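One such given next:

>
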Amino acid sequence: MRAVSQVPRWRAWVMAARPKTLPAAVAPVVVGMALAQVDGAFAPLPALAALIAALLIQVGTNLANDYYDFLKGADISEECEQFMIEVRDLTFAYPGQPPLFEGFSWRVEAGEAWAVIGPSGCGKSTLLYLLAGLRHPTSGEVRIAGRPLTRPRPQTGLILQDYGLLPWATVAENAALGLRIRRFYGPDGLHAPAGDQVAPEEIRRRVNFWLSRLGIAELRDQYPSQISGGQRQRTAIARTLALDPDLLLMDEPFSSLDALTREDLERLTLELQAETGVTTVVVTHNIEEAVYLGQRLLVLRRPPHRQALVVDNPGAGRLDYRGQPDFLARCNQLRALLEQTDELSGGTVRGQA
């Protein structure tokens, strides 16, 4: 990934010298009339010349503003290439409670697969909701794809433990729900990404593709009460991936499933992450699941969390990793970190177990 470059001096000068925008319809007339007074009387020819000059000034202003926005967007795109998630000096506390995070900072590069591990009540799910824009920091900032997060963004996919399926809708209807909501609002940049409207045939194409890819195409006309827990979770995954997210957040998505179904969906998650390249953050309290899914591990223990403790896990991503000796070694390493009674300092634990 390309590192964020310093803004060149000429670019900084253009951005600093950005002119103020005048109202497009009013400015030419006002300036033209002001300049067209000759000895207190209105003069048509000077007025026309002044009007033309004002129009040229306005055009120049608009071009400069557009170029400023282009430069600003270029700088943001460079940062987006480097970091999908950037948590800056984050502090968060529920009302009347001590803080869970205090001056906490953390970065995730685009395309990475992370697992967030920690015991119940340590703030794992809270961190995920902060990344989803469902909760807001007490202080500090969360940036997603280079932009400050102030509300849920349409390019972020969220998969929860309880599936969130509509019981009166079929599998296919549930899988299409997100796309139908996008079509209802239109490409406004808030509820749906800015761009082209999602056509009904495109909705059908995406839903059919993901139902087939996830192995539940034959269940398309069934209702959630008629299918198993693993099949419900696959439906929820299809609903999310049909939106083509660039960030996928998963909050203990397999914790209520039996062991074999859980392992099957964990393998599926690895395959989908490799196929799509989507940045993935999985929250779990299961050590084996965290080590299997996360190429990098964020360890949360006793709040308040002030520094990020990160464990590199280069073996993750291999479907056969669970049967390898280094998998067991990494699990033991992670268990030892979680069992420490003193406050953990921040930093990165390298791949060697």
Observations:
- Confidence is low (pLDDT under 50) at residues 1-40, 65-80.
- The chain has three domains: 9-81, 84-155+245-353, 165-244.
- The radius of gyration is 26 Å.
